[in-house]
């Protein structure tokens, strides 16, 4: 898709021009602003392929790389991502209801609390510079309260955040994280469960619509060639569309700034995001 055509397609979002800007949050050092819609992009399954991993790291601007533990190139790519200012996450393998293979470092419901937490700590230790976690698969484990409480205990002790990939409508992961005091977000859009340029484009536009309507959107993609080719073309256009891009850590920092505002200031900010806030 040529640049001009792609830009026109992304700009022609339903009602985009009529949506008002949100009021400024805070303008202190590092505080950022919520005047612009914000887009967060996570690329899952990084670590098996060095070439696909480096193509992911070459994506312009802020992204988070969710790296599989004990993968062939995971440690190398984590260090390179950190050096480039990208966010580094653990893509924690969790049991799924289809019983699909999970690879090393899997968290499964048959593990005791001590064993599950031992495995999770080893997964975290295998990835340098990790700042957060999301689930790889996990439709079974994320719908089970007790294992997710054990997961959140480890994240809390290490000062990490959690992104619920929402691989099942029955997930409790985000809810348990918030109950335990772990900063948490939820996935809004999967970009590429159909690997065609047309589908990725449609999902990306959907993410922009969510960001414009609610103030932010979190998109998850994978290091497929079709996805990376599309993102290399589309991401540089977002500045022209008035879309701010952030890592998950930076976005959560904005949330913390919002939480510190007094009640009068908070009333000035109309927040639509369904998982906005830290309370």
How would you concisely characterize the structure shown here?
The protein has 279 residues and is an alpha/beta fold. Helix content is 39%, strand content 16%.
List the helices and strands and how they pair.
Elements lengths: L2 H9 L26 E9 L3 H8 L6 E4 L6 H10 L3 E8 L18 H13 L6 E6 L7 H14 L2 E4 L8 H8 L3 E3 L2 E2 L6 H18 L1 E6 L3 H10 L9 E3 L1 H13 L2 H5 L12
Helix pairs in contact: 4-5, 5-6
Pfam family, one: Polysacc_deac_2
Protein name: Divergent polysaccharide deacetylase family protein
Keywords: Signal
Explain this structure.
By secondary structure, the protein is an alpha/beta fold. It has a single domain (39-267), classed as Glycoside hydrolase/deacetylase (TIM Barrel, Alpha-Beta Barrel), CATH 3.20.20.370. The chain contains 10 helices and 9 strands. The protein has helices spanning 3-11, 50-57, 74-83, 113-125, 145-158, 173-180, 197-214, 225-234, 248-260, 263-267, and strands at residues 38-46, 64-67, 87-94, 132-137, 161-164, 184-186, 189-190, 216-221, 244-246. Strands 1, 2, 3, 4, 5, 6, 7, 8 and 9 form a 9-stranded parallel β-sheet that branches. α4 crosses α5 and α5 crosses α6. The longest helix is centred in the C-terminal third of the chain and has 18 residues, at 197-214. Mean pLDDT is 87; it is low at 14-34 and 266-279. Residues 1-26 form the signal peptide. InterPro entries: Divergent_DAC, Glyco_hydro/deAcase_b/a-brl, TAT_signal. It comes from Marinobacterium rhizophilum. Keywords: Signal. Pfam families: Polysacc_deac_2.
